[in-house]
Every structure is written in structure tokens, then in C-alpha cells.
């Protein structure tokens, strides 16, 4: 077990909690800068593989892991203990269970950064709300990483853009500077809930786009679907968290577009399989990756029972995935509601 921290007074230590493609991409991004990385992985075999071969065997296996920059941990408490920043990069459905081994004391005086593009099932909490309610983390000590950005393009060092949101703009600016590099531009933003809800909802829209594609609807329909989706996101976000925001900015519209259209979008892929006739279970088994939109649509649908926002796309996806309405029937009805 490693007990010595790599952190120095001039190099901030950043803990990354998670071992998936986005966590691996964040390791690559941060390895470009003057930081020390403390990477926690649940799977001991994966950890040992990375230690030996400097590659994650399960995700983005072409990305080299720099052992001089990255320290591996099987103990989450130990990984977090020596860090000034803690990035959470676990699918939303598993965040609560993963963090259960930590307490509020473990997060004291640290900046928590959510890289989760989902919502906690059952509780219907955003990750920022989970950190505030269960770990007493102050909003000024919380940041959110949003897109538009896919892990696969980070692995290829394609020019990419990130949004760093925090109620404390200085905090967002500080972390944006840490994460920016030669192929990443990071922009600060103060609209935490708007950015976070938009990141959740764009996955639902990508599911709808995938379902429509699986049903052989064409580009013309998808253009109408996405433009109506932006209006749906606007209605929901402005009702739940009204404030001054530009929903045409990259954090909102840009993230929606890349998730709805990209070949790397797992939510679009999942939806495409559903549209082609896969059951939810068979699609999940074949993908072997989490499509955040599957859990998100149930949470957003339930949250909206309180607000009553007009959300025909969300409703159609919910009916397909949770009420077993045939995709062709649900999308066939939806197309008459779009303008």
C-alpha cells in the first residue's frame, strides 16, 4: 500500500475517483499539467495492470499513463487524504454507494469536482446536491465539469472544450486553469445547476435521437427533434432554477449537439439499439457501459411531476424505457407534437 504523497507545495494534488473512460480521459488531461494525480480504482486487477503496463485495460487502452505523474490507490480514503481537489468520475447510479466509505470529514477543506453527467436515482439529486446534503460541502467548494467533450476525442488529443461551473467564479477560474492544456480549453461559469441539469438532459435527448435513428427516421427529423429539445431544456431549467444564462453557449447547446450527433455518444448508441428492437436489458448487456440517460429520464420525469413543465421528448423516452410503450408508437406520437 502506498502511504507517501507525491504532492509538493508547487504542484497541487488532485484525486480522481473512478476508472471508466471519462476518468481515464481526465487523467490524461491533467497529466499534461504541473499537478500530481492520485487515482482511485475499485478493481484491483485493473490497478495492477495499469501499474505494470501504464494502460487502463478496460477503457481508452491506447492512452499512456505516466507513472511519474499518477499515483494509484485501492483505498479511497488514502487517495482523497492527500489531495486538494477531488474529482468524482463515477456513473451517477453508483456514486452514492462508492462514496459511502467516506465521511464529511474526508472532504473538509477540499474542492469537490463533479465530472458526473447524471443524476442520483431514487433521490433524484444532482451530484452537487448529494455533496451538499450528505457531506456538508459548501457550494463555494464545489465545481462541475461539463462539455462539450467526449473521452474518445480527448484520447486522440482532438481540440476539446470544457466548462467549469462553480458558484464561486474564482474557484471555477482556478480549476479551469489547472485543467486547460494544449488540446483542452476550459471556460469558467457560475450557473452550476443550469450546467448540471443541461448535462443530465442532453443524455435524454441523445437517447431520443438514437431511438429515432434506429426507427429509420432521417436527418430532417433529427434536426427538428434537437431544436425542440433545446426549447424543452430551456423550459425545464428556467422553471427549476431561473437565472440569467445564455443557453446557446457551449455548456448548454454545444454539449447537447455533440451528445445527440456524435458516434461516441453511448446514449445515442443505447437509444439506437432500443429503436432497432433491443430490450433495455439486452442493450445494456451488449454495450457493457452506462448510458446515463436511462436513469436520468426517470429522475427528470419524476422531478417534473412537481413543476409540470411541457416536456414531450422526455415523456416519450420515459414511456419507451419504463412503461414499455413500443418505440414506433411513442416516437410516432411525438413527431406530431414537435414544431
Structural account:
The protein is 50% helix and 12% strand. It is α/β, with parallel strands linked by helices and 339 residues long. It folds into 2 domains: 13-190, Rossmann fold; 195-334, Orthogonal Bundle (N-(1-d-carboxylethyl)-l-norvaline Dehydrogenase, domain 2), CATH 1.10.1040. Helix 1 links the parallel strand 1 and strand 2 (36-40). The model is unreliable at 1-8 (pLDDT under 50).
Counting helices, strands and paired strands, the structural category is alpha/beta
Shape: globular
In which range does the helix fraction lie? 40-55%
The CATH topology of the largest domain is given as: Rossmann fold
Low-confidence stretches: 1-8
Number of helices: 15
Give the biggest sheet: 8 strands, mixed
In angstroms, what separates the terminal alpha carbons? Answer: 59 Å
The CATH class name of the largest domain reads: Alpha Beta
Count of individual domains: 2
The CATH architecture designation of the largest domain is 3-Layer(aba) Sandwich
The CATH H-level superfamily of the largest domain is: NAD(P)-binding Rossmann-like Domain
Q: Give the overall average pLDDT.
A: 94
Brief descriptors of the model:
single chain; 339 residues; alpha/beta; Rossmann fold; N-(1-d-carboxylethyl)-l-norvaline Dehydrogenase, domain 2; 2 domains; 8-stranded mixed sheet; 15 helices; 8 strands; globular; disordered N terminus
Brief overview, please?
The protein is an alpha/beta fold. The chain contains 15 helices and 8 strands. It folds into 2 domains: 13-190, NAD(P)-binding Rossmann-like Domain (Rossmann fold, 3-Layer(aba) Sandwich), CATH 3.40.50; 195-334, N-(1-d-carboxylethyl)-l-norvaline Dehydrogenase, domain 2 (Orthogonal Bundle).
Amino acid at each position: 500500500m502506498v502511504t507517501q504523497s507525491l504532492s509538493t507545495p508547487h504542484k497541487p494534488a488532485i484525486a480522481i475517483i473512478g476508472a471508466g473512460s471519462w476518468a481515464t480521459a481526465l487523467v490524461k488531461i491533467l497529466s499534461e499539467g504541473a499537478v500530481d494525480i492520485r487515482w482511485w480504482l475499485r478493481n484491483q486487477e485493473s490497478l495492477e495492470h495499469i501499474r505494470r503496463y501504464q494502460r487502463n485495460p478496460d477503457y481508452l487502452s491506447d492512452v499512456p499513463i505516466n507513472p511519474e505523474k499518477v499515483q494509484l490507490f485501492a483505498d479511497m480514503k488514502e487517495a482523497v487524504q492527500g489531495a486538494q481537489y477531488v474529482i468524482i468520475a463515477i456513473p451517477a447510479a453508483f456514486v452514492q454507494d462508492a462514496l459511502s466509505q467516506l465521511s464529511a470529514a474526508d472532504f473538509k477543506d477540499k474542492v469537490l469536482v463533479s465530472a458526473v453527467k447524471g443524476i442520483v436515482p431514487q433521490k433524484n439529486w444532482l451530484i452537487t446536491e448529494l455533496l451538499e446534503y450528505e457531506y456538508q460541502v459548501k457550494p463555494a467548494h464545489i465545481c462541475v465539469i461539463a462539455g462539450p467533450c467526449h473521452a474518445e476525442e480527448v484520447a486522440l488529443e482532438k481540440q476539446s472544450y470544457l466548462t467549469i461551473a462553480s458558484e464561486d467564479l474564482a474557484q471555477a477560474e482556478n480549476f479551469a486553469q489547472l485543467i486547460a492544456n494544449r488540446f483542452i480549453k476550459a471556460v469558467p461559469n457560475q450557473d452550476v445547476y443550469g450546467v448540471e441539469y443541461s448535462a443530465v438532459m442532453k443524455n435524454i435527448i441523445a437517447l431520443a435521437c438514437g431511438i429515432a435513428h434506429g426507427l429509420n427516421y432521417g436527418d430532417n427529423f433529427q434536426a427538428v427533434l434537437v431544436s425542440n429539445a433545446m426549447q424543452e431544456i430551456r423550459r425545464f431549467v428556467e422553471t427549476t432554477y431561473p437565472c440569467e444564462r445564455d443557453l446557446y453557449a457551449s455548456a448548454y447547446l454545444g454539449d447537447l449537439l455533440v451528445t445527440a450527433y456524435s458516434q461516441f455518444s453511448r446514449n445515442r448508441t443505447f437509444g439506437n439499439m432500443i429503436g432497432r428492437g433491443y430490450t433495455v436489458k439486452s442493450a445494456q448487456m451488449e454495450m457493457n457501459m452506462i448510458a446515463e440517460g436511462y436513469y436520468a429520464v426517470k429522475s427528470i420525469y419524476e422531478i417534473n411531476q412537481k413543476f409540470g413543465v411541457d416536456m414531450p421528448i422526455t415523456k416519450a423516452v420515459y414511456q419507451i424505457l419504463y412503461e414499455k410503450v413500443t418505440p414506433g408508437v411513442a416516437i410516432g406520437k411525438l413527431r406530431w407534437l414537435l414544431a
